[in-house]
């Protein structure tokens, strides 16, 4: 019938026609969830708890429908190679003022 539901979605008859509904254990990440749900369903995997996330040990991991996000904890600076796409992979403590060319007096 030309139904374009994701393979991990069920096609449900409605009075208006049909609706695609992602199966349990899958999240709906379709481009237009409100108008055309169930077109793209991804398995719900919490990378933060399964050890699949590559966040710094000084970062917090946040599970998202599609993947995860890392964010450096307060008191740490994000020194990741690509902070726009992959933040929180390298989180360092900022250097103390003596490392800015100042000398400490004793």
UniProtKB/TrEMBL annotation:
The protein's GO terms of the molecular function aspect are: calcium ion binding
The family database entries (InterPro entries) matched by this protein are listed as: EGF, EGF-like_Ca-bd_dom, EGF-type_Asp/Asn_hydroxyl_site, NOTCH1_EGF-like
Q: Which PROSITE patterns match?
A: ASX_HYDROXYL (PS00010)
Q: Which Pfam families match?
A: EGF, EGF_CA
**All residue ranges annotated as the EGF-like domain in the record:** 4-42, 47-92
Which CDD domains would you find in this protein's record?
A: EGF_CA
Give start and end of each EGF-like calcium-binding domain: 2-42, 45-92
Which keywords does this chain's UniProt record carry? Disulfide bond, EGF-like domain
SMART domains for this protein: EGF, EGF_CA
Q: What is this protein called?
A: EGF-like domain protein
Q: Which organism is it from?
A: Teladorsagia circumcincta (Brown stomach worm)
């Amino acid at each position: 019938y030309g139904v374009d539901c994701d393979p991990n979605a069920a096609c449900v008859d409605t009075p208006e026609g049909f609706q695609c509904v992602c199966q349990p254990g899958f999240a709906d990440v379709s481009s237009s969830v409100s108008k055309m749900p169930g077109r793209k369903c991804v398995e719900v995997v919490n990378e933060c708890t399964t050890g699949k996330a590559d966040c710094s040990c000084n970062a917090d991991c946040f599970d998202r429908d599609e993947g995860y996000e890392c964010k450096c904890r307060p008191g740490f600076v994000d020194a990741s190679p690509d902070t726009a796409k992959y933040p929180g992979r390298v989180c360092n403590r900022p250097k103390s003022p003596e490392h800015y060319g100042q000398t400490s007096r004793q």
